[in-house]
Amino acid sequence: MHAVGMVLHPERDSAAAVDAILDWAKSRDVEVLGMVDELERLNCAARGVSPAELGGRSDLLVSLGGDGTMLRAMRLADGQRAVVLGVNLGKLGFLAEVDVPDLPAALSAIDGKEFTVESRLAVDAALGDTTVTAFNDVAVVRVPGDGSAVVAVRVAGHPFVSYAADAVVVATPTGSTAYSFSAGGPITSPTVEALLVTPAAPHSAYSRGVVLSVHDAVALDILPTSGRLAVEVDGQVAGYVGPGDRIELLARPDAARVVRLGLTTFYQRARRKLRLTDSAEIPGSDPA
User: What is the pLDDT of residues 151-193, one digit of tens each?
Assistant: First the structure.
């Protein structure tokens, strides 16, 4: 490993984790990179680079924060050779692999190629002349006072199902435990290659979510009775659409790769974070 890039949470204290990375790298002659605007908060020896350089020059991107920071790191790694390691700085996240005290050992394991990777699916959404990328979800959401989201889902060029709802969420398996889950969508392993379409607070005759193949072209048509809708990409507003507009969606498998050291499984993380419990009617179930 020649270069490690750091992606910092905008608010949480990451000094201890940064020091651990710098100390580990110094003894191995590994360059440590960070984005200039993020490093301004720290007085450290990391080299400041642009976001494009960080993604292109790093062999490993270390995300210091929570799942939001991991999503930023995955976007930086999109199409690059770097794998992404999530370091938890507070709340338990699905994507984080280690806590700060375990960071030096994790770096040594990665340097020694003692790890596996989880490939992560991305979805590109075409909004007019602009294309935006999500690793969690793309959602069309009603603007308060402007009416409901009335949306037709087209698959392989043909109408499939229509929804009237507060929002329609198109999620990757990574995003199945985020907005989609809150809207009633299924928990989905990151090894599954699919898009999950889930209506939030539906008030139409058909209210079930659907699971679509990544090999089929998917589009969202905003129908004439719809209000003006915000397009949220990984929770951030990327633009607005209205009746007559169409959003083309393209799923891209293996867009980013997340480091796994075998410490926990996706199912263990999901059970803990979502506080999944067994039915009281089922005796003898294991709560671990």
Answer: 999 999 999 999 999 999 999 999 999 999 999 999 999 999 9
DSSP structural state of residue 143: P
Q: Taking the model in full, what pTM does it have?
A: 0.90
**Are both 97 and 127 inside the same structural domain?**
no
Which of 171, 162, 174, 177 has its CA nearest to residue 195? 171
**How many separate domains does the chain show?**
2
CATH number at residue 228: 2.60.200.30
Cα distance between the two ends of the chain: 36
Residues contacting 10, CB < 8 A, separation 6+: 38
Residues with a known catalytic role: 67
- How far is it, in rounded angstroms, from Cα 198 to Cα 107? 38
Give me the amino acid identity at 123: V
Same domain, 128 and 105: no
Q: How many CB atoms lie within 10 A of CB 100?
A: 16
